[in-house]
Automatic annotation (TrEMBL):
It is found in: Nucleus. The keyword Repeat applies. Its main location: nucleus. The gene is Csrp3. InterPro entries: Znf_LIM (IPR001781). This is CSRP3 protein.
Length: 195
């Protein structure tokens, strides 16, 4: 049927869009007042719109609905989100895992501290290693202050660390104690005589 005396149909409200009020996105026309995120209803413009087939979203809602899922995805740096995705028709919880129950009464610090069990332990001192002080070596987490050679006590870095049987050594001590022996190896300059 011919389109007499009007413009294209709005992708959101299906009413006629006249040229003076038209915004085009993904080959479709919208009224300026209808150019809203389909999930959160935030006003969009050319820099904030993300289109998916016939749907338009703000970049945040688009990322939550169609982006990668899991911890650390779809959020700003350092954010902990309590967004469940209900307004997007999503279930952001892992499949098969129940939603965590919210306590009906406030918890005190001692009860909260008892619930933390997944804190790594330092192999050298046996104390908890938190993310701010963690250095990985030999596949294990270490405190920065414990990340030292087991023999000479020298502070280690990723460029001079070696590990053997769960213990850390500097390259010099490792070569002297566990490397090949003889001329040119392990710091020896002459052949040792056996008596």
């Amino acid at each position: 049927m011919p389109n007499w005396g009007g413009g294209a149909k709005c992708g959101a409200c299906e009413k006629t869009v006249y040229h003076a009020e038209e915004i085009q996105c993904n080959g479709r026309s919208f009224h300026k007042s209808c150019f809203l995120c389909m999930a959160c209803r935030k006003a969009l413009d050319s820099t904030t719109v993300a289109a998916h087939e016939s749907e338009i979203y703000c970049k945040t809602c688009y990322g939550r609905k169609y982006g990668p899922k899991g911890v650390g995805f779809g959020q700003g740096a350092g954010c902990l989100s309590t967004d469940t995705g209900d307004h997007l028709g999503l279930n952001l919880q892992q499949q098969g895992s129940p939603k965590p129950a919210r306590p009906s009464t406030p918890t005190n610090a001692s009860k909260f501290a008892k619930k933390i069990v997944d804190v790594d332990k330092c192999p050298r001192c046996g104390k908890s290693v938190y993310a701010a002080e963690k250095i990985m070596g030999g596949g294990k987490p270490w405190h920065k202050t414990c990340f030292r050679c087991a023999i000479c006590g020298k502070s280690l870095e990723s460029t001079n660390v070696t590990d053997k049987d769960g213990e850390l050594y500097c390259k010099v001590c490792y070569a002297k104690n566990f490397g090949p022996k003889g001329i040119g190896f392990g710091g020896l300059t002459q052949v040792e005589k056996k008596e």
